[in-house]
Queue: 4 jobs
Job 1
Amino acid sequence: ASPPVKRARRAKNADAPSVEKRGGRYRSKCPVAIQERYERVLSQRFYMVERRREGNALKEEFNVLGSTGNIYTVVINHTPRCDCPDASKGNHCKHIIFVFIKVLQVPRLSSHWFQKALLSSELEEIFTSAPVAPNAVTNARVQAAYSRAMGKDGKLAYPGSSSKSAPSALQNKRMPGVDDDCPICYESMHEEQEKNLVWCAECKNMLHAACFAQCHCTRQHQDLSCVYCRAKWIVQTSTHATPVGTTKEGYINIAAAAGIDPVRDESICEH
């Protein structure tokens, strides 16, 4: 009998586009440990202090204030990461989840937010669908404390109408409804006391006073503007300082500025 004829291998098409490989194993469903951290993000309060992205790069960095007052750096790119102790152990920490869910507003039903590694197409979808920055930032004292720690101007900018140059009265203010959330911190403004809100003289929309100050306090040399319509906003300034510290692990800690307990609760995965 004649030997079997070997099939010729199909030549590779040099012009065919290469298929991107994921940098980690794909998770078809959210692991229990990550789901637990997700629940903590919903029940605790986190803030985005600062964010940085160059153009349309598939990478963005976020400085996040944790529940103990430490400032951690979260990087969202092909391999999302954070420099907190929990993430350093290989965990998908709460700070990463906060950025995905609250700041970038990745849908809860999406699988992107709990992946260890992302494809370029997934990152493009995330950044394209994300709200325009800024969206969730700290209060003015926290932002100023962080700015001083980083060698920036620590003056505070408070929006309001107590300045002599501010309008004496604003007509037709749009009071927040049941479904109206602050466009900066994502918390509800419904039934909020009016003294805790500020409003734009141009478009009459309201938002949290502290959140407005948080959003703009790093822009000391720029005119402040409405987050809704970008109209110029009149502010007053204050120079009161708030203590800034550094933990033994080397993290910037502004718990005093944030008004929170710097002692970590080891029972709730907060690191």
Job 2
Amino acid sequence: MEAHDPGVNISNIIFNVNTHFYNYDK
């Protein structure tokens, strides 16, 4: 798990949050 790119980390966090709410909304 590489965490040297803040942009990638932010994108992953946003993706995870969106996926979480998407699954919760189902």
Job 3
Amino acid sequence: AYYAGERILLRGKKGEKGVLLSQEDFDFLEKIENLLNGACYSGERLILKGKEGNKVGIVSLEDLELLEKLAP
């Protein structure tokens, strides 16, 4: 691996596949988890990322259908 800083190993709840994260990525995931846990919308949601993976949007399936209609 090229990343020389400190990394955190995350595993699934049942101990399946793990992933190594930098502290910055881990902090970002915690923010997303807190946002999802505090969301009022109780239906199915999707997380969208930009091409560079840096901007995230959480949308309902209904909103995603609308975005698909607007996209060229």
Job 4
Amino acid sequence: MFGANENCESSSLISLEQFSSMTKNLWRNRDGNKHIWDMFQALDPTDKVFLVLEDLEQARKQVVPHLQEWRLREAFRQTDKDADKRVGFREFREFVTQNMENNLFLNRSIYV
């Protein structure tokens, strides 16, 4: 998961700086499936190989607590193409790639 939390094992945590670094590296490297996979795994601490809204809510609380919850829910809804309340890696990769191309992912103003 993101951030430092004394109640969590440090091996499963990444900092906001590490996440930002992965994102910037992905932007530079268009063949960034490895970086996208690393981000996906960071959001999936139990290795279920899919994300649920609760996974993203936990990350939001630790990394971008000022992000409005409704924005997170809407992003999840749009990412969950098959509406099964799970986001698999393919859906996640498509979301990240699309937002990188539109430069939305790096624009902090969308989080306010």
